[in-house]
Specification:
361 residues, alpha+beta, conserved putative lor/sdh protein from methanococcus maripaludis s2 fold, Elongation Factor Tu (Ef-tu), domain 3, OB fold (Dihydrolipoamide Acetyltransferase, E2P), 4 domains, 6-stranded antiparallel beta barrel, 5-stranded antiparallel beta sheet, 23 strands, 37% strand
Length: 361
């Protein structure tokens, strides 16, 4: 009987405790961490990167002035050569035969001229005295002059034959590197056909294409930097040539000469040229990353400025935004010293509580 009394009491106590108001704690939402960019005074210059290819400042296509069969090529591609060094040779046997013939004809012409000159020398005083007719004297003189012309022609033929023999030898016109070997021994070649390509040693430039909206900001003699990744080098350079007319695509050909003549580089390497472009110094404004800017629907763009007093962001309108190589020049709306959010701006709202992002490092 006693146990029956305790059961209702326990049930009543359980029901009373369930009816009591329970306090539920709601956790505060996490504060978003934001990356901040501190505004500084607008720069009046910026760097621009152009891709190009290294080329020798001067190169020569080496060939023989005469046709013939190559007997020897003494160099290979990649070899350094010195001015006056013999590089290749043609078979000169046919030219030697022509020279021998020219020498023989020259000797015959010389004998003929001396004979006609002697005949005219004897007849000239006789003609002046009237011993021989004027016609005989004129014929003797004409024969002498004709023989003289034949002798001059024969002498010229000897010189030409010797020049042809000399042209069967190919020499280096200056110190350099053989960048290409275009033929082989025992091959018949024609006059002016390229045999070797010689590049000036040490003098290298980079050819780049510059868009029309930038070309006016580049000047002859302006300093630049050339980055050649294959050679693991960054070299000082100078703008040495600017085309006066645009090529296809409205780009201008520009050549940048590397200042370090001792740099060991080759033609055909990929290179990057860094040129500093001067901006309009009359532009008032500040420079911020494009990632800070939110496109608006009311002819304004916006940024979020961080308020360190209460750790909130303020949505602020900006105007006159112009792109400058990955950044924006903002003319109005923010000032140097302001801290603007530079990442994840699309997830923010005006007045949102945030905290500056702290790197784990």
């Amino acid at each position: 009987m006693r146990n029956i009394v305790w059961v209702p009491l326990l049930l009543l106590m359980f029901l009373l405790s369930a009816c009591q108001e329970q306090t539920v704690e709601i956790p505060e939402p996490p504060v978003r961490a934001v990356k901040l960019f501190t505004i500084s005074e607008a720069n009046t210059s910026s760097e621009r990167l152009f891709s190009g290819t290294t080329v020798a400042t001067s190169s020569a296509s080496l060939s023989f002035p005469v046709s013939g069969k190559i007997t020897d090529i003494y160099v290979n591609a990649g070899e350094e050569v010195s001015k006056g060094q013999l590089l290749a040779k043609l078979d000169a046997s046919s030219f030697n035969r022509l020279k021998n013939m020219a020498v023989t004809q020259n000797q015959q012409a010389k004998v003929l001229y001396e004979d006609k000159l002697g005949d005219y020398s004897r007849k000239k005083p006789l003609g002046e005295k009237g011993v021989i007719t004027l016609r005989d004297l004129e014929e003797s003189k004409a024969a002498m002059l004709s023989a003289k012309e034949q002798l001059n022609l024969a002498r010229t033929n000897v010189h030409v034959a010797q020049d042809n023999i000399d042209d069967t030898f190919l020499y280096a016109p200056y110190d350099g590197i053989i960048s290409e070997r275009s033929s082989e021994p025992f091959v018949e070649i024609t006059a002016s056909q390229q045999i070797l390509l010689l590049e000036n040693k040490g003098a290298i430039e980079v050819e780049i294409a510059v868009p029309e909206n930038i070309i006016a900001k580049i000047k002859l003699g302006q300093a630049a930097k050339v980055i050649v990744k294959a050679a693991h080098e960054t070299l000082a350079a100078t703008i040495s040539e600017i085309s006066s007319s645009a090529d296809v695509g409205n780009v201008f050909a520009v050549k940048v000469t590397i200042d370090d003549a001792q740099a060991t580089l080759y033609s055909g390497l990929s290179a990057e040229v860094v040129i500093t472009l001067e901006q309009n110094k009359d532009i008032a404004g500040v420079l911020i990353p494009l990632s800070c800017v939110i496109a608006g629907n009311d002819q304004h763009d916006y940024v979020y400025i961080f308020n360190p007093d209460n750790n909130t962001v303020i949505k602020t309108a900006i105007s006159n935004v112009s792109n400058v190589i990955g950044n924006s020049i903002v003319v109005e709306g923010i000032k140097p010293g302001d801290q603007v959010v530079s990442a994840g701006v699309t997830f923010l709202a005006d007045g949102l509580l945030v905290k500056p992002y702290q790197s784990a490092n």
